[in-house]
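Example with several molecule types.
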Amino acid sequence: MLNENLGIFYALLGAALAAFLAGSGSAIGVGMGGRAAAGVLTEKPELFAKVLILQLLPGTQGIYGLLVAFVVLGKIGILNGTAPDAAKGLLFLAACLPIGVAGLVSAIHQGKASVAAISLLAKRPSSFGRAMLLPAMVETYAILALLVSLLTVSRL
Amino acid sequence: MKDYIYEVARIRVMENSLLTRSDFDQLLAAPDHEAALAYLADKGWGGGAGTSDAESMLKAEEDATWDLMRELLGEGHELDILRLTRDYHNLKAAIKDLYASSGLAPERLYLEGGTIPPEEIRKAVEEKNFDRLPPAMQEAAVQAHQTLSRTGDGQLCDGIIDKAALDALTAAAQDAPDPVLTAYAVTTVVNADIRIALRAAAAGKNAAEISAMLAEAPDLDLNMLAEAAVGGKTNVAEYLKNTPYASLADALSRSMSAFECACDDLMIDRILPQKGEVIQMGPLAAYVIARETEIKSVRLLLTGLQNGLPREQIRESLRQCYG
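Resulting C-alpha cells for the full complex:
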C-alpha cells in the first residue's frame, strides 16, 4: 500500500511540476509581452491584433505542461489507468521534467524575444511576419521537450 | 531589479517621430526660416501651438520630452543626472542676476526642467540662505557668491559653479542606474574639461591653475590635458589622439563648433546600442539625449536659416541623428 501511494505521489509530483513550471514560465513570458504590448498600444492602438499574437506566443508552454500532466493523470488511476508502484512513479516524475524545466526556461526567454519583437513592430509595423518568426524560434525547444515528455509518459 | 518593459515599448513608438537625416535634408532645402518652421509644425512640432515663434516651438518640444518622462517614471529620479547641469546654470544665473540686478524676466534667465525649481534657487540666493540648496551645491554657491561680490569677476564665478557642476556630474555618474547615464556624464565632463582648459589657457593661466579648474574624467589625465592646453589647440588634439576620445581630435583641430558637434556625435554613437535594449532603462535615457540633441540641431538650423548662412555651413553643424 505504501509502495503504491509513494508511486502515485511521485507521478503526481511529476504532473504537478510539468503544469506548474511550464505554466509559471508562460505566465512570466505572457506578462512581459503584455507590458510591452500595453506600451505600444498606448501610442498605437491600431496594432492591437498584431501585438496580441506576439504577446500570446510564450503561452504555449503552459498548454504543453498541462497536456503532459493530463496524460500522466490518465495513466495513474486519477482519471483513468492503474496506480503505479514507487519505481514507476519515479519514472513518471522523470518523464515530466523535460517539459517542466524546458517549458519554464523557454517561456521566459520567448517572453523576452516577444518583447523585442513587439518593439520591432512598434518601429516598423510592416515587419509583423519577421517579428513573429523570431520569438517563434524559441518554441522549437519547448516542442522538443514536449515530445520527449509525451513519448516517455505514453510508453510507461 | 526593476524592469522598464512598458516604458521602453512606448519609447520605441515615440522614436518613430524623431527627425531623420532626410527630414534635415528637407529642412535645409526649405526656402526660408518660416518654411522650415512650417515643415516642423507638419511633423507635429510645437504641439499645435503655431509656427510663428521658433523658441516657443523648441521649448514646447523640450517640455513634451520631460512630460513624457514624468508620465513614464512618475516621481522617480532615475534621469536626474540629465537635468543636473540646468540646476547649476540656474544657480549661476541667480547669483549673477542678484549681483548685477539685470531686471531680466525669469523666463529669460532660468532654464526649466532642472531637479530644483528655479524660483527655489533664486529665493535661496536672494535670502543668502544657501542651506536651502542641496549639499553638493551649497559650497559652490557660497564661494561663487562671495567671489563675485568681492571681485566682480563673472568669469571666476562661472568657473567655480561650472567646476561644481562637473564634480556633481562625475559623482552622479558613479551611482548612475544605467551605463547610458554614465556615458552621458563622462562625455559631458570630457567636453567641458577640454573647453575649460583651452579657455583658461587663452586667458593666460598656467598648467597648474588650469588643472585645478578641471573635473576628473575617466581616461583623461588632467595634468597632461592642462599642459597640452597651454601649448594650444593643436597640442590638445595631439594629446586626445592617445586617449579613447581620439575621434574628437580631428574636429578640435578644425574648430570649436566642429568639436562641439563631434562631442554630441560621440554621445549619439554611445547610445545607439540602446536600440536593441528592451528591458532596462537605457532606451529612456537615450531617447531624452536624442531629443535634446535633435532640438539643438533644429535650433542651429533655424538660426542659420534666419541669418542667411550658407546651407553647407549649416549642414556641417548638424548633429548625428538617432532616429
